[in-house]
Amino acid sequence: MNFIITLLILILILGLIITIHEFGHFISAKKAGVYVEEFSIGMGPIIWKSKKDKGGTFYSLRLFPIGGFVAMANEEVKGQKIKKDQILENKSFLVRLAVLMMGIIFNFILCIVALFINGIIYGSPDNTPVIGQVVEDSPAYNVGLQTGDIIRKVNGIKMSSWDDVLLEISVKKAQDKYAFVIERDDILHDIEIVPNKVINDDGEEVNSFGIGVSTSKSYGFVNALKYSITGFLEMFKSISIVIKNLFTGDVSINNLSGPVGIFTVVDQVKSTGLENIIYLIAYLSVNVGVVNLFPIPVFDGGRVLLLIIETISKKKYPKLEMILNYIGFGLMILLMLVVTFNDILKLF
């Protein structure tokens, strides 16, 4: 029963994020007068579809909840002649750019709205890297760190939030020692910490410093609004840094999670309350948006890149786009298989 509940929550979360993303493409295409044949949630065989609306669009649910799409008009749609001005490729550069980018923008909006809801209902946490607790006899305790200390730098990198700190000390390649710059009573202190090595729930060796985040929160509409914007920006920055560090080798591919890994996270989060589920929706939505910025044809960013190339060269490259789509799709399937394999290994 627990498995089924977790699976349903996961499907609902991914379904919401995918629906919002595709709705961004859909509504912008409709507003631009582009003919949309189908708005689909899921991939594979159709398990339900509606009648066509006045604009000629039908809505469908497909068997596999791993994506979705908005089928826009080519020269013909099932024998039905489409006007030239109803085809996306015949629209202006700015209109095409807006349609391609709106899915990403809607994912970012979903993140901001989710964080705002959390801020209104549960309060807005202070993400400033202020140490909320120090575990007795831990590495942090032994070098003199105290509750209320502000972490200004780690390994020479400026820390503006707890997201920055956690990225530096737990996601990047493990080090034997870390150089902290701590602010206490307006005075900066250089402190070197050698963390303990512990085994986490996934069976991986991780660093343990013995410090905890501050649990202070602020309430009210304005604070929730500030938290939603700053929280989104911090998530965007952290995810971008992780992606950059994947290419440099500072972050291992083992830190990535696929459907199995996300399922495990949902299983852990669901028992902690709605607040963390909403936060997870925000975090995953930003992930989808950032990944879709990649200049790979299978993603929105790749289609934008081809649009820019076509606009500059004043030529279309349908064969090149098809080849690059196949290559990009193949690489994504390979990456997903590797990540899923790693997620399964972590379970055991």
Short note summarizing the structure:
The chain is of the alpha+beta class. The protein has nine helices and 14 strands.
Mean pLDDT across residues: 85
- Largest beta-sheet details: 4 strands, antiparallel
Going by helix content, strand content and strand pairing, the class is alpha+beta
Approximate shape: elongated
Give the count of helical stretches.
Answer: 9
Characterization of this structure:
This protein has 348 residues and is α+β, with helices and mostly antiparallel strands. The chain has nine helices and 14 strands. A four-stranded antiparallel sheet has the order 8-7-9-10, with helices on one face. A two-stranded antiparallel sheet has the order 1-2. A two-stranded antiparallel sheet has the order 3-4. A hairpin with a 2-residue loop joins strand 3 and strand 4.
Keywords summarizing the entry:
single chain, four-stranded antiparallel sheet, 348 residues, two-stranded antiparallel ribbon, alpha+beta
Lay out the secondary structure.
Blueprint: H1 2-31, E1 36-49, E2 58-72, E3 76-77, E4 80-81, H2 93-122, E5 124-125, E6 131-134, H3 139-142, E7 150-154, E8 157-158, H4 162-171, E9 178-184, E10 187-193, E11 196-199, E12 205-208, E13 211-213, E14 217-218, H5 221-248, H6 259-269, H7 274-291, H8 300-313, H9 318-347
Antiparallel strand pairs: 1-2, 3-4, 5-14, 6-13, 7-8, 7-9, 9-10, 11-12
